[in-house]
Amino acid sequence: KLDTKVEKYLQPFQLSPETLQEVSARLRKDLLRGLGKHSHHKAPVKMLPTFVRATPDGTEKGDFLALDLGGTNFRVLHVRVEEEAQKVLKMDSQICAIPQEMMLGTGEQLFDHIATCLGDFLESHNLKCQTLPLGFTFSFPCEQLEIDKSILIRWTKGFNCSGVEGKDVVQLLKEAIQRTGDYHIGSVAMVNDTVGTMMSCGYKDQSCEIGMIIGTGTNACYMEEIKNVKRIEGEDGRMCINTEWGGFGDDGSLDDILTEFDVEVDKTSINPGVHIFEKMISGMYLGEIVRLVLVKMTKDKLLFKGQISEALGTSGRFETKFISEIEDGLENAKKILTELGLDWGLVDASVVCLVCDTISSRSAYLCAAALATLVNRIRNNRKLDHLKTTVGVDGTVYRKHPTSKLQKAVRLLAPQCDITFLVSEDGSGKGAAMVTAVAQSSACLTASRGKTRIKAAFVSTNPHR
């Protein structure tokens, strides 16, 4: 009898293979809308061109700098790419804090601080005499116009520096470095962290053409045929597209599979109606979905003798990391329930395990449906009967939760694709350096073919022409 009652709560989270195929088909339509010249403005899945035109071929080499700004700290790294050993080595790195008042000050102050810290790093590692290329991971919403030109759309994550929104952040960085007056950098490549994930895996495995992050948020990128990217002129070659698939469902296309708990999580989030798909999958929200299900079950006297503890009744107190800990075994569940001040019995602990498994599985299956859309698209683009490809993956949810369900579901939804998963090492650091290395070798190749070709290439990639 209890099983039947518990099933009533969990059934809406259990998606059939047919439903997952339908989700995959809806995302396929949204990818096309995002790639369209006239439809991309209103598309929930933005499909942003990254101007990364190739994956590593294993011949890249040299020393690079990487700058990773995505929160209250930023990192500076010195990365060496060794062709003979086929390795991307982190030589040195340094973490620099950004004071709270600087996050709300002027853009000039912020970039001067970054330039000073970068200079100090170069000084302390005897690199100031070299002019090294730099990969810049800037994890804020930007419109990228070229590999080295990226306009900040809006600040997020507690930043609100004046004079930066609507400006090219590469230019602001270069101007700040010029103001220091005591060192120079080479070419700059702007890098999205998902693209960095793909590229950091791509040196090790040259069939890696997809990057995927399932962590606090979720996103993916993949190599698309340029002729299908309607905003960019040009027919030949490929370009990495940053899908921004977290926005899938923002137009209501997933409403029929949302549960009452998803609706509640969205309503109480800081951005209601935005990033619906991300809220069903990623680490920022999974713990809260589990908490809301447990609260409802307790109110209905199915759990904990009907008594909700203060912790369970508080938003955000059931952390996503509890899910993976509970998936590791019943003993962990008992420990966590005690910490949450709950009066539990063995049946309660077993039900909590089942709830965690169900919600974590749904996340894996939805992710698999989205990933299947991408691999099937690459296969169809290339008119192949069978595609063998690698996905570079990162993010705490992927690393800490069982991944067998995701992998099995992708195989079911993309039967003509043979997919290998490779966990990325430091996409925003090593991956950023790799993007710079590939961009540089492409530029050298173009230059060697004559200046007229550079002009033609530049014209054909300017989306605002």
Automatic annotation (TrEMBL):
Residues 6-203 form the Hexokinase N-terminal domain. GO terms for molecular function: ATP binding; D-glucose binding; fructokinase activity; glucokinase activity. PROSITE patterns: HEXOKINASE_1, HEXOKINASE_2. Its EC number is 2.7.1.-. It catalyses: a D-hexose + ATP = a D-hexose 6-phosphate + ADP + H(+); D-glucose + ATP = D-glucose 6-phosphate + ADP + H(+). It is an enzyme of class 2 (transferase). One of its GO terms (cellular component) is cytosol. Pathway: Carbohydrate degradation; glycolysis; D-glyceraldehyde 3-phosphate and glycerone phosphate from D-glucose: step 1/4; Carbohydrate metabolism; hexose metabolism. GO terms for biological process: glucose metabolic process; glycolytic process; intracellular glucose homeostasis. Keywords: ATP-binding, Glycolysis, Kinase, Nucleotide-binding, Transferase. The keyword ATP-binding applies. SUPFAM superfamilies: Actin-like ATPase domain. Residues 209-438 form the Hexokinase C-terminal domain. Belongs to the hexokinase family. This is Phosphotransferase. It comes from Neolamprologus brichardi.
